[in-house]
Amino acid sequence: MIRNGLLILLASTLAVGGCAHVLSDEARLKIDPLADYHQVRKDPEDHTGKVLMLGGRLVETEVSREGTTLEVVYYTIDRWGRPQGEGSAGRFLALTDQFLDVDTFKAGRLVTMTAAVEGERTLPLKGKDYPYPVFRIDEIHLWRPPDPPYRYPYYYHPYPHSYYDPYWRYPYYHRSRYYPHPWYW
After folding, report:
1. Cα separation values, 36 from 12, 32, 54, Å
2. Domains of the chain (ranges plus CATH)?
């Protein structure tokens, strides 16, 4: 009985631990629950200093003497903080004083961050002036790229047309990978 209770406790602990948020509790406690990205996008100057949780796909990483600037396409995030790529509400700039490696933070990777609103910056985008909301990064999480689909190795029978091939003889030879059904010809 005690053993079953311990197994249930262990399983529930692993299940809850597997669903942990990617950002720390301290960073998430700083988030202003009334601030929304769409409101900030309309009027960044009015929301200066408010902390938001943001997520998206990296477009460009620029390193300078002052730090690193990330250009990010905004995506909504799920309850664990993973950006969901269903439509974008625009782009934003995220600044940090730290050095973020360009090879690690390369275009196409997903990021989740908590960041404070700093204002707005207008930069050219595809020949037009685009107003970017600017955020100062507090904490950032870089999602690892998805694993490529597993491909099973090609089956190679060591004796393809021999007595040892189980599908070579009568009731099975029509199922062979090497020969079609005898009436196929």
Report:
1. 34, 9, 10
2. 23-142 (2.40.50.140)
